[in-house]
Design goal:
Chain A is α+β, with helices and mostly antiparallel strands. Helices cover 28% and strands 25% of the residues of chain A. Chain B has one domain (3-102): Glutaredoxin. The chains are: A alpha+beta, B alpha+beta.
Chain lengths: 80, 108
């Protein structure tokens, strides 16, 4: 089964409370998503660790029920 | 030989290796296809491993890197990331810089 966009968003936010999360349903089929996650907690982490933090937030669903999540991570701009 | 040892041998034995679904000519997944497109565009010399042909490696590679998805790119023995990270690094110019710094370009 696929996952709903708001379910993905709330799982990410419960693990990374400061995160800004934007989910796009790429194919409009509830199965292919893009997520952009911006969190201060990523600062200083290599990209692998940033993405891993998001995957961990999804509690093992990534690679399982959630096949297609195109992920980008970023750190918030300061003072802009 | 355990699956971990098999993976270790592949990862340490090649400068650049991509674990993917399918082959560079016939990728079987959009993410693997994207990873190949980036490597080809960079002109990197790389090996690929088709995990669909080897169920032991397909499962083992996820534990090896503690990373849930395929494709997975390894450079000089280190796990670099999947296709999204490759794209982010490509767009930031970091992959190009790494290819130059490590001398990974295909021989002419």
């Amino acid at each position: 089964m696929a996952m709903a966009a708001d379910e993905i968003e709330s799982m990410i936010k419960s693990a990374l409370p400061d995160a800004q999360v934007e989910i796009t349903d790429l194919a409009d089929d509830g199965n292919h998503y893009a997520a952009r996650v911006i969190s201060e907690s990523f600062r200083g982490l290599p990209r692998v660790k940033q993405h891993k933090a998001v995957y961990d937030a999804l509690g093992g669903r990534m690679g399982g029920v959630l096949h297609a999540l195109q992920l980008t991570t970023a750190i918030p701009d300061i003072g802009v | 030989m355990s699956v971990n040892e098999r993976i270790e041998e592949i990862v340490k034995g090649n400068n650049v290796v991509l674990f993917m679904k399918g082959t560079p000519l016939f990728p079987q997944c959009g993410f693997s296809s994207k990873a190949i497109a980036i490597l080809d565009h960079l002109g990197v010399a790389y090996e690929s491993v088709d995990v669909l042909q080897d169920m032991e490696i397909r499962a083992g590679i996820k534990d090896y890197s503690d990373w849930p998805t395929i494709p997975q790119l390894y450079v000089k023995g280190e796990f670099l990331g999947g296709s999204d990270i490759m794209m982010e690094m490509y767009e930031a110019g970091e992959l190009q810089a790494m290819v130059e710094a490590e001398g990974l370009a295909k021989a002419e």
